Amino acid sequence: LKIAKFQKDSNSIAQICFQVDKFAQQVTDLEAIASRGVELTDKHLDNLIGNLMTELVKLDEIVVDGDLKLQKRKQEKRVQSYIETLDMLRLRNTQLSSKSGKVPLQKQEHSSGKVTVPLQKQAKQRNLTELMHSFRDSDSFVVTTKWETFD
Fold it and tell me: What UniProt keywords apply to this chain's record, in alphabetical order (predicted)?
């Protein structure tokens, strides 16, 4: 039973490694395209990050010991580095868009449906949230809230 479990886990890690190799080639291609100054689509970057995150979750579900644990950890670090690379490409892409005068748009979901919001506005919202957290940590502050009433 131990040998069968070892082989099953080994095969699972090998399949994940094969998928990660495919995605690694796509990451390398995107890096080459971005190095030429070409603007990448956020949708493609998001899909690739999502696929890599799926593989990371699959790796996380595998419980192994010994040599396989080392292989698993190596693959996890590899996937994480590809995700970081894609995040850097997305950041560079955003900077290229802002330099060219375009305001990149990102979809946000609200209760009323999907609304397109400029990334600059999202950055302001993030800064406001960070400011609120810093006030929360201070000794004295006053919080007022307007509550909506529903029938």
Answer: Chaperone
